[in-house]
Amino acid sequence: MDQTQTRSHFFIGLWTALVLVLVYLPIICGAVASFTKSRYFAFPVSAWSTSWWERTTDSIEIGMIVQNSFLVAGFVTVIAVVLAFFGALAFARYEWSGRRWFQKLIMLPIFFPQPVLGLALLLWFSALGIPTSWVTAVFAHLVWIVPVVTLVIAIQVYGFDPTLEEAAFDLGCSRLQVLREVTLPLLWPGIWSGALFAFLLSWGNFPLSLFTAGADSTIPKWLYAKMVAGYSPMVPALGTMSTLGAATALALAGLAALMWRKLRAA
Amino acid sequence: MSTLTPPSALEATGQPAAPAAAGWRGPRLSLGARCSAPVLILLGLGFVAPLVAIFAYSFARPRTFEVFRSFTLDNYATLFDATNTVWLSFLWSFGFALATVAILALVAYPIAFGLDRLFGRWSSIISLLFVFPLFVSENVRLYGWVLFFIKNGVLDGTLKAMGAGGGPEVLYSPAIILAGMVYTYLPFMLFPITLGLAMVPRDIIDAARDLGAGRLMIWREIELPLAMPGILIGVLLTFVLAIGAVAEAKILGGQSVIVVSHDIEIAFTYSQNWPLGSALAVVVSVFVAALTLWGLARLDLDRLLGRR
């Protein structure tokens, strides 16, 4: 490796580090703001306090909002994974006449501006006379998240050897047995990461929730309302808590994957 | 697919060899069609139908809710009327989207290169660090930038404490909206490019180097063309998402600039003119869908996603 190459490699590393710092800078700013004592944020912080965190965790209103976010994300995860599992098989496993069209159609919601989709859904619900609530928000999230989860699982399906299924059939397995004993175990890693994506993307989604959750607020929606009017340090406090929640979910999933790999190796 | 495969062979479509066994076929629908049915029903009810509804609404009389009871092109006439300033928000959104894509390509390419070639076992951790912000609500992150740039905020306060006057006033300007978009959509550019670069066989690069090609030539003749499908996805995705972006202009831009999604929202909420909002949404949707379908027609998704 010549010297100019080593030097350019060093700069790529430096650049990546710099961009990563910028990526996390606003998240850290929020955390700092949530620990200040004063009502209005000023830096350098003159007095630190955890009182805004306490107020946030004690608030009944915020309890409801966190509950809504969990409800929506929970339902979205379960429904999205089931639909996307079959969707991914249709996307990557089977050769069928409509496959190319299916692959394109499923990409469209991902490539679609979410605020516009949210408004279109709002209009659609109103045309059908369906009052918006967290239930309609679940449906709205699914429209965007099922395609994403389908892609995540499809990547796993591409690495899947179809002859294993055929061998099981030849050995006399029923279709249900093949699904349970061959297909599912081979696709579990993709299904789990799909579930994680579904939960986290729903948890953090703002534009779809804004228009389709009606009077039921979710964490991102509540934060936005308070940013626009009535700021209090509960905004960065809840924002930071939500971020920590997502990080914990990701870390737990990583840990589970590691243990799973160890168990399989043993 | 072996890494030794020459580019000409790579061009051939890699069909996954998975014809369903004869015994699998149902009486009417193929197994693939049946597996796709739940997703298709969801997308039919939740994606296609709302767009059709919006399309129908766009022909209703302005400021009414009479779908299918009136037919008029007034809403479209309003949009394309030169005295209306809607075209201005279109122009802003379009300009922001173009600039976002250009800046993101420059920002993300070296990182994607690093993730693919340089960082080794650190790659997965660094990727994870770039994925994670996707799961933090975008308004939380954008508000963090407000806290950074606001008067007496992190930047201003630090500069003042060092006796350097005070921070620059960048909030509520088009520049900060653009920066916000670049910030929000970074992962959508980074990962497709990484995917694209991963498709470039190393052996070809080594061979070209052995034959005396310079680094610029290798990049232009081998790396860039072979990584193009991934780059194209990243460009398309970030462009389309940036066209519809609204949070950046609202939170960082303080509504100093009205982008097109904001116009649509205003029509639906404050001014209660659903037909006009629908017409605007139809124009944006048609533009976005045309671009997406055009881009996707150029890509072989099987090869891109099933590279392993």
TrEMBL record, chain A:
GO biological process, alphabetically ordered: transmembrane transport
Transmembrane segments: 12-35, 70-94, 106-127, 139-161, 182-203, 237-260
Family: Belongs to the binding-protein-dependent transport system permease family. CysTW subfamily.
GO CC, one annotated term: plasma membrane
The species this protein was found in: Blastochloris viridis (Rhodopseudomonas viridis)
Locations listed in the record: Cell membrane
Main location: membrane
Classification via PROSITE patterns: ABC_TM1
Membrane topology according to the record: Multi-pass membrane protein
Keyword Flavoprotein: no
SUPFAM superfamilies in the record: MetI-like
Record PANTHER family: PUTRESCINE TRANSPORT SYSTEM PERMEASE PROTEIN POTI (PTHR43848:SF2)
Record-given protein name: Inner membrane ABC transporter permease protein ydcV
ABC transmembrane type-1 domain residues: 66-256
Gene: ydcV_2
Automatic annotation (TrEMBL), chain B:
Membrane topology note: Multi-pass membrane protein
Pfam families the record matches: BPD_transp_1 (PF00528)
Sequence ranges of Low complexity compositional bias: 9-22
Domain of life of the organism encoding this protein: Bacteria
Annotated localization: Cell membrane
GO cellular component entries: plasma membrane
SUPFAM superfamilies: MetI-like
Keywords, ordered alphabetically: Cell membrane, Membrane, Transmembrane, Transmembrane helix, Transport
InterPro entries in UniProt: MetI-like, MetI-like_sf
GO annotation (BP), single: transmembrane transport
Keyword Repeat among record annotations: no
Domain ABC transmembrane type-1: residue ranges: 90-295
Main location: membrane
Protein's UniProt keywords contain Transferase: no
Chain ranges passing through the membrane: 37-60, 90-113, 125-150, 170-200, 224-247, 279-299
Region (Disordered): 1-22
Family to which this protein belongs: Belongs to the binding-protein-dependent transport system permease family. CysTW subfamily.
Protein name: Spermidine Putrescine ABC transporter permease component PotB
